[in-house]
Amino acid sequence: MINRRLKNLMFTAITLMTGMTGIVSGSAAETMNLTIGAGKAAIEIPDTFFPTEGFVGVHDKLHVRTLLLDNGATRLGLVVVDMTSLFEEELGRISEIVKREGHVESTNLFIAASHNFSSPHIMHGQQIKTEEEKQKIEMQVLNVDGFEKRILYNVAKLYSTRLKKAQNYESLEPVIALAITDFEMFHEFRKVILYWDVREKETLLKYSDDIELIFVELAKFTKTEEELHTITDKWIYFIKHAGELDVIPTSFRESPLRDAFEMANTASLTEEEFELQSKRRDFIVMQRGSIEKARHDGIQEGIGLTAKKMLQAQLPLEMIMKCTGLTAKDIEQMGKS
């Protein structure tokens, strides 16, 4: 069974592919007064999606393909998706995307599934509609104690409070928590995005899709503008560097990204909004400085206590200097205090 994430990946691929499908004229087409455009894009499935339905990874990529035909009066579109089947909801979304990106009316659009059984299934009725799905999105710029527990608490609260009086447990809807941090939380992983869910400890068999935690660690993202090839990379790059961008990157061809850039552009802020944003930025900088100073002071205090205990144990001065990094003069003053 394919989940919400793979559907969104499919729609993203269709958006990218249709947006890049240019209508061009060829020599044969010109004699018929016909212009034609074709495009293909891969459905980029992350490794964290697996295992599912017996699949453990990607051998050959799944694709979506578009063919656009225009005779000057009418434009037709053909979309083929590498899936076993498509249902009304998916057809409606694809039709909206192609109309927006390719300017093809739904009455002139043909959509087909390749009936490929080397891909996971889109099961009818399994997709949770947006209005029924709850998402918890949090941006965290300061690494404070208890942050990871707060994420769990908020997700558990959001999930449990959705059950109204007299409703049964089947009425509970999925909750997705997206935490975007400006620091590293999981030092044992080098991946920028980590997906967590509820699984059996030894076999890793998934218990439920109802609760999912997604962490995006901006500190691990080091790609340059020239290395942005996926829509996910572009969004992460935008979130990390939005405050530094004077002009929109040339690779940002997708409408949502361009809209986000315009919203983040300080030139469009009122004087009051700009002042509020500046104060917020100054507050974050000062908080970071306070945390760093407290960390430094704590380390120095610990070194001092260690040195005093070593002096009390009458250990050699050279050993105390080597273990603490203090000078002989510093250690001598500690012995007098």
Alpha-beta content class: alpha/beta
The number of strands is 8
Strand content: 15-25%
Write the H/E string, N to C: HHEEEHEEHEEEHHHHH
- Total helical segments: 9
Side by side, the strands of the main sheet go: 1-2-3-4
Short description:
This protein is of the alpha/beta class and 337 residues long. The protein has 9 helices and 8 strands. Pfam families: PDDEXK_2.
Describe this structure in words.
This protein has 337 residues and is α/β, with parallel strands linked by helices. The chain folds into 3 domains: 4-113, no CATH class; 130-268; 271-336. The chain contains 9 helices and 8 strands. The strands form 2 sheets. Strands 1-2-3-4 form a 4-stranded mixed β-sheet. The longest helix has 42 residues, at 271-312. Mean pLDDT is 76; it is low at 20-31 and 124-133. Residues 1-28 form the signal peptide.
